[in-house]
TrEMBL record:
Catalyzes the conversion of N5-carboxyaminoimidazole ribonucleotide (N5-CAIR) to 4-carboxy-5-aminoimidazole ribonucleotide (CAIR). Keywords: Isomerase, Lyase, Purine biosynthesis. Substrate binds at S11, D14, R41. It catalyses: 5-carboxyamino-1-(5-phospho-D-ribosyl)imidazole + H(+) = 5-amino-1-(5-phospho-D-ribosyl)imidazole-4-carboxylate. This is N5-carboxyaminoimidazole ribonucleotide mutase.
Amino acid sequence: MQALVAVVMGSKSDWPTMEAAAEIMDKLQVPYHVEVVSAHRTPDKLMEFAAGAADRGFKIIIGGAGGAAHLPGMIASKTRLPVLGVPVQSKALSGMDSLLSIVQMPKGIAVGTLAIGTAGAFNAGLLACQILANNDVALAARLDAFREEQTRAVLDNPDPREV
Ligand code: RP5
């Protein structure tokens, strides 16, 4: 099946974070591709990937990186596809370095920046599904069901002392 979302990350060490994006796309049955592409360690691969992403049929790119996290911004510089950036929580600065590296893009090249860590990765996957659902009624229905299920889980168990 044609992958609609590309999930790329700077290192294999980012996968424990970025798999949260895969988790929600699995649940909502959105096909995706995952690959390590590093802005610093494989810069030529990054440029080639970004330049060819639209022709490969991807609709959205999710880029996760930590530290001096140039990956999402550099990808965005070479493609018109929407790029969602996930700041991976770094050891040295707890992801503030990643966040600031990704979020403060210069006017004219956009990256939609999510929260630091797994919540950001999950929401990047979710947002990708929401964007794709604009042109996919079946996906829109699955999204509605996911949100209802989430709401119901909170309403059905409101006592904070119970698991
Ligand atoms: C970044 O450097 C990666 O995105 C990763 O978050 C960080 C550390 O990479 P490793 O040294 O664990 O490969 O490029």
